[in-house]
Inverse folding.
């Protein structure tokens, strides 16, 4: 069994921007998310056996989406999971279309997922007790693919490993030239 989820995985450039912002936040008593683990969860799957994983991979391979942009510009504190996270208030409809299509395909494969409204976010820190004052910021994230990710427990803590990436189709470039 593997602990899996579908996610948006940042480019190195985006990862550095998010990590830089995260480093600007006072750390005590927070448990900050390691830079390598920063991502946006699309659909959390939980423990999945090898056969179901293979069926899932095949099932989502025909998802069609176009590249889109996310803009993270708000720091939030969520009290129940006790996390600090970055939020995006306005996002392209492609994101919700991707989320809904993944959810539909996952459920069609017989995997039960939590029913709750989708809120795209980047978890920065755990064990938070309140919102922290932070400098204003804006992080632009060009999204060109989604990934299947495994959550691996190690002696160093949790590490997220990308197992497969599906690239979005590129939109046709319109030209004034014939």
């Amino acid at each position: 069994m593997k602990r899996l989820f579908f996610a948006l995985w940042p480019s190195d450039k985006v990862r550095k921007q998010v990590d830089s912002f995260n480093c600007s936040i006072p750390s005590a008593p927070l448990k900050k998310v390691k830079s390598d683990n920063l991502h946006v969860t699309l659909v959390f799957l939980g423990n999945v056996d090898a056969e179901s994983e293979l069926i899932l991979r095949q099932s989502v391979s025909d998802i069609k989406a176009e590249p889109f942009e996310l803009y993270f510009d708000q720091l939030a504190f969520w009290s129940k999971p006790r996390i600090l996270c970055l939020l995006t208030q306005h996002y392209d409809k492609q994101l919700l279309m991707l989320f809904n299509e993944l959810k539909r395909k996952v459920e069609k494969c017989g995997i039960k997922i939590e029913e709750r409204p989708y809120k795209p976010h980047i978890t920065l820190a755990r064990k938070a007790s309140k919102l922290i004052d932070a400098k204003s910021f804006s992080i632009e994230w060009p999204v060109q693919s989604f990934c299947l990710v495994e959550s691996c427990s190690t002696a160093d803590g949790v590490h997220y490993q990308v197992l497969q990436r599906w690239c979005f189709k590129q939109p046709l470039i319109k030209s004034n030239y014939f």
